[in-house]
Amino acid sequence: AQSVTQLGSHVSVSEGALVLLRCNYSSSVPPYLFWYVQYPNQGLQLLLKYTSAATLVKGINGFEAEFKKSETSFHLTKPSAHMSDAAEYFCAVSGSGGYQKVTFGTGTKLQVIP
Amino acid sequence: NAGVTQTPKFRILKIGQSMTLQCTQDMNHNYMYWYRQDPGMGLKLIYYSVGAGITDKGEVPNGYNVSRSTTEDFPLRLELAAPSQTSVYFCASSYSSSARETGELFFGEGSRLTVL
Predict the structure, then answer these.
(1) Cβ contact (<8 Å) for A101 and B94?
(2) What is the per-residue DSSP string for B57-91?
(3) Mutate which: A27, A44, A93, vs B, most B CBs within 10 A
(4) Nearest 5°: CA angle at A44, between B110 and B59?
(5) Which pLDDT tens digit goes with each residue over B27-58?
(6) Chain B CB within 8 Å of residue A17 CB
């Protein structure tokens, strides 16, 4: 079975500081990996997606993530946090059990302190 | 382009009542999904569909039923509502030309259901 583990249900950073949201995955086949963002009272939107083409994936709004097979990790980073980045972030995986079954982590709420 | 549309946005049910959450997409996506979101639990897959006439169970299917008679529509039926079904429900759709690829999921705005 596939799964993702997000370390830290809440993360606080100062405006302008580095954002690091952690995600570790488990999959018995080469996975697809995703980061989605959810703003209050909205559905989820795709930030970025890993499909094995490149280990460093760049997404929208200045976010990027690096796939590290040896560490089974796919951490999300942004060099400088903006107030508008405050949201909940979800890591997701597909592959084991079928590529159309997308499994989400429990989410990390990002707070940006002015 | 409306994307994924869910109705209703809010609903209160009494224990034992039944209802259907409607979901429609206008992007001609082949895959559709229903997730439920509970605080601190992330999203759990209830059911998904790989095309019209084909549905399959996700992680938490008990107490729910789905059908996919057209590409556009994927209603979720709750039979005999229970307090444990109080949640926010999200419908999503995606497109993939291959069963070995995963497309971007496009989500509706959610349906908040309370069972009292």
Answers:
(1) no
(2) E-S--TTEEE--SSSSB--EEE-S--GGG-EEEEE
(3) A44
(4) 75
(5) 999 999 999 999 888 999 999 999 999 999 99
(6) no
